[in-house]
Amino acid sequence: MTSRPHIDDAERRTRLMRRHRLAAENPAGGVVDAADAIVGLHATTPSTVYLSAWARIPDFDPDDMTAALYTDRVLVKQLAMRRTLFVFSRSTLADAIGAVGPRVTASERTNMLRDLRRSDSPDGPDHYDDPDGWIDKARAAVLDELGTEPALTSTQLRERRSELDGYIVHGAGTKWAGRAPMGPRVLNMMSAAGEIVRGPNAAGWHLSRPSWVLMSRWLGAPLEPVDPAQGHRAMIDRWLRAFGPGTETDLVWWLGSTKTAVRAALADLDVVTVDLDGGRVGYVHADDLDPDHPVEPCALLLPELDPTTMGHKKRDFYVGDHAAHVFDTNGNGGQTAWWDGRIVGGWSQNPDGAVEVHLLEKLPAHARRALRERADELATWLGEVRPKPGYPAPFMRKR
């Protein structure tokens, strides 16, 4: 019996550094290249998009990303895998929506229906008696308004259309009672479906104050339809090129999909199984078994939720024993410091703008020096900007 090929952890780290455009000898050629190299940039925290690009593009100018997002529109923000906001190139956008859009859209609708039905309001509006009908009317109102206006904020939409004024009441009769608006959740559902998109941003690059636009208007043409099976194949193909080898668990988690859908896509792709360190079995493209050329050790500072940090569910090969210090209990990765393809600590920005590295293990002097120099470069690049972390790493709470 022929044994499976083996790809060890060192080779996996080399692949991440080179293919994610993090190696000094293989930087990204621009913002689209940076996004495509890791399938898509995480965008839940607005500053992550720009800081991830800074880590991959020499002499990165934030105006280049802003132009790509809002002027040239070659990059698009989209609610996709795991109900997470990403930035995709146009070549990836339709596949991402096709793969997981129906699943995320259905989940958003189901959650809204549940909350509308459970609302504590004893004498609420009559739409509580028909939550399906309320959602449909709210969606139609959004499409109607954005069909005549180039862009509107969530607030403007609610001011124009009473159909979006729905809310739920929780904790009625207690000191925790409150109201939660439903209009923004309708917009998220429609965004996941690819009907509308986050358009012009009225704030600085590290903040998010978007207007909403019809997707077809923003792109200048209707979005190409992609069915879920086709989308899964395309997205898994991209993930394996960028992150592979990886396990079935990695793929199911990254896509926020099911084992059935992932297995079907893998069966349609030309992939092979390989042995990984630790006794796991992974997948890789059949033409991608040769080792990558090793990269020189380098110092990296990546933002919270960077795709390299978040690309695997089984991530011990690059995080080691440090997961509890850099990932919160929900699995969100904070700001990380890397050396030689591994997470070795984290970083934070002080009120005066200085960037401080927090090591979680002993490193040789030249590695510490390289990380310190990289921190100074980041502080200089940030200047007066103070991005606020949305998902602080546990090590930051212990300071």
Q: Keywords for this structure?
A:
single chain; 43% helix; 399 residues; 17 helices; alpha+beta
Chain-wise SSE layout:
Layout: E1 6-7, H1 9-19, H2 31-37, E2 41-42, H3 46-54, H4 62-70, E3 75-79, E4 85-89, H5 90-118, H6 131-146, H7 154-160, E5 167-170, E6 178-181, H8 183-192, E7 196-201, E8 210-214, H9 215-219, H10 228-243, H11 248-255, H12 259-268, E9 271-276, E10 281-285, E11 299-302, H13 307-310, H14 316-319, H15 323-326, E12 336-339, E13 342-349, E14 355-359, H16 365-382, H17 394-397
Parallel strand pairs: 1-9
Antiparallel strand pairs: 2-4, 3-4, 5-6, 7-8, 9-10, 11-12, 12-13, 13-14
Walkthrough of the structure:
There is one protein chain. The chain is α+β, with helices and mostly antiparallel strands and 399 residues long. It has a domain at 299-397. It has 17 helices and 14 strands. It has helices spanning 9-19, 31-37, 46-54, 62-70, 90-118, 131-146, 154-160, 183-192, 215-219, 228-243, 248-255, 259-268, 307-310, 316-319, 323-326, 365-382, 394-397; strands at 6-7, 41-42, 75-79, 85-89, 167-170, 178-181, 196-201, 210-214, 271-276, 281-285, 299-302, 336-339, 342-349, 355-359. The strands form 5 sheets. The chain has a 4-stranded antiparallel beta sheet. The chain has a 3-stranded mixed beta sheet with strand order 1-9-10. It has a 3-stranded antiparallel beta sheet with strand order 2-4-3, with helices on both faces. Helix 5 packs across helix 10, helix 6 (131-146) packs across helix 8 (183-192) and helix 10 (228-243) packs across helix 12 (259-268).
